[in-house]
């Protein structure tokens, strides 16, 4: 009986902490981990271990499809890391450059929440979908622990 209880407990733990693949209405597929939290570098590593990368949101249509998908999964916006950073730029202005680590290119599309990015106390250098901004982005402290979204490298829009 104890062995069966242990197996049931382990099975429930795995179910509760599992990440899943989801398909957006534009055909792109995303691996979303929302139940276990990682800092930004750990999230990058978790994606990389599976041959994936943190999602790069580089076009309004990709953002719209991903936001629609996230709304269908979550009742409210969770904190989820995405693949953008500001190269640890200490400027606090909203218009400082943001990059994708996979190409080194600056991003030309963004979906920042109100008054973001703000680089609070000069320490917010990694982008995430923000629970307080209705699926819009925030610049967060890279050591903060959130879920994340991965995609296959070079996924088309």
Automatic annotation (TrEMBL):
Pfam families documented for this protein: Lectin_C
Signal peptide: 1-18
Keywords: Disulfide bond, Signal
Domain C-type lectin: 25-151
Matches recorded under InterPro entries: C-type_lectin-like (IPR001304), C-type_lectin-like/link_sf (IPR016186), C-type_lectin/snaclec_domain (IPR050111), C-type_lectin_CS (IPR018378), CTDL_fold (IPR016187)
Domain of life: Eukaryota
Transmembrane segments: none
Protein name, as recorded: C-type lectin domain-containing protein
Annotated source species: Stomoxys calcitrans (Stable fly)
């Amino acid at each position: 009986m104890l062995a069966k209880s242990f197996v049931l407990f382990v099975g429930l733990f795995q179910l509760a902490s599992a990440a899943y693949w989801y398909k957006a209405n534009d055909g792109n597929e995303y691996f979303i981990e929302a139940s276990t939290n990682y800092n930004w570098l750990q999230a990058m590593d978790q994606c990389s271990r599976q041959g994936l990368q943190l999602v790069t949101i580089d076009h309004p249509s990709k953002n719209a499809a991903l936001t629609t998908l996230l709304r269908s999964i979550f009742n409210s916006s969770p904190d989820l890391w995405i693949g953008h950073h500001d190269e640890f730029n200490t400027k606090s202005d909203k218009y400082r450059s943001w990059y994708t680590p996979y190409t080194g290119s600056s991003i030309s599309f963004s979906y920042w929440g109100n008054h973001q990015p703000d680089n609070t106390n000069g320490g917010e250098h990694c982008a995430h979908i923000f629970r307080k901004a209705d699926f819009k982005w925030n610049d967060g402290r890279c050591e903060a622990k959130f879920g994340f979204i991965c995609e296959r490298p070079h996924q088309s829009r």
